[in-house]
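ok so for the tutorial part 2 we go from a plain amino acid sequence to predicted structure tokens. step 1 is just haveing the sequence, like this:
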Amino acid sequence: MIQNCKNILKKGLVLLSSIILVVSINSCEQFELPVAGSIEDLTPPVANFSASVGDDYLTYKFDNLSISATDYVWDFGDGKTSTEVAGANVYQGEGTYTVKLTASDKLGASSTFSVVVEVVKPITPPAIVPLILNPSFDDPGDDGKYTAPWVDDNLGKTIQISSSSSFVGGKSSKFPDANGDPRIAYQKDIAVTPNTDYILTYYYSIETGDPSTVTVAVLGGTVTSPAAVAGATIKKFVGTTQVGKTPFEKVDLAFNSGNNSAISIHISNTGPKTSYVEEFSAIVAE
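step 2 — the prediction. this is what the tokens look like for a chain of 286 residues:
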């Protein structure tokens, strides 16, 4: 009887061991054990960046604002990519581009962030058309001689006016004998757009006789002394045609304003014969 009980107990233990073994095997098949030494990624990367346009509307800079990342892949939306930390790209033309940044860490975690960039050529405002005051010299001072805007006592003597010589009637500026009584006309603070092509138009005449000239110069900015005129001159025309008080010669003086936002017009003459100048106008060159 006792022997039978021992046999039954032995068989039970064997069966129980088999069940435990099967459960253990099935457990191994269902669950993977962690790799030795591995740690949980407590700070996964977060991709982020800001976009800004450069001086050229086609050039963009992308500042990387990602956190917890070590590697980066940029897709600029035009077929170009980069693995640099900061992004920069020059686009070939206007358009809408989706810029994407993928940031990842050494544990294999990654994050993606994207921004839509509108590349648009800025509208250029129209250039300033120069406004020349009293362009026909028809508004003299009370004493018959011009004051502002054509006179500057630092640069020369007040010009005269003439009613007997005029291109369109009315009056014109008069420059008598320059050998004994030199005169100048000078108008400053004429607003222009920098780096723009202009055409200054005016008319002049010189009485016949001994050689004489009348010079119109476009100056950059303003000057305060006769010695500074030459250095400030952007463009000038020296008129030499002598036909008497009439007819007048037309001059189209083309110039570029350079880096100036304002110009001046300076008129002077040489020689003994009287010169006349009037009808100033200026346009933006096409």
